[in-house]
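Q: How would the structure tokens look for this protein?
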Amino acid sequence: MFRRFERISHGILMHMNVGRTLARWFPVPETLLPKSAGVDISDTSVKWITLEASGSGYRIAAYGSERLEPGIVEQGTVRDAEALGKALADIRGRLGATAAHAALPEEGAYIFSMRVPRESPREQIRNMLEFELEGRVPLALSQVVYDLDIIPDASPDEQEQEVGVVAFPEELAAGYAAAFDAAGIELLSLEIEARSIGRALWSPADSPQSDIVLMADFGRARTG
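A: Here is the predicted structure in token form.
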């Protein structure tokens, strides 16, 4: 599942550790969870895929791709939320779901890593991160939404661990949220597409010293 931004912003909800713990021990019945699709939005297209349970695993229930007219999204920024909302509404019936996790281009994101004391509580990491954001992102903290991940490393004996951080201007995230809202699709989360690809190709069960050394995304207009 896509991770959620730490700050509450236009329907993008905080994904708390407590929530994950409760979900693990007291799982929400599947009938109460909205079926969701993974949606990838770039400057030139909207792509989607929906999985459904099948035996002990999953199978593809729906997938597809539609071109976007030039100018709707430019360098990762929504220039015409109404037009993007219409494009999403046009594919809503083919999603096979009523909700979505969206992957966004990296152009509008600020991506960096920092080191924190190992085993630091997430709340403590978030407090340290807010100080770090002031020097890394040329925006006021109130204008930023962000997420963080603990990066697995090959030297667990070190006293520090690496944290990967992704920050978006709140206005940019709000543009995507508005488009999904206009399309009548419940937006559950936003994240950069590189993180989505990485999670799809690598899992925590893999060793940090695995054979994966490079992941490349070849798109119509760019490679990342």
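Residues 1-28 have pLDDT under 50 and may be disordered.

The helical segments are 17-25, 81-95, 122-136, 170-183, 193-201.

Upvote if useful.
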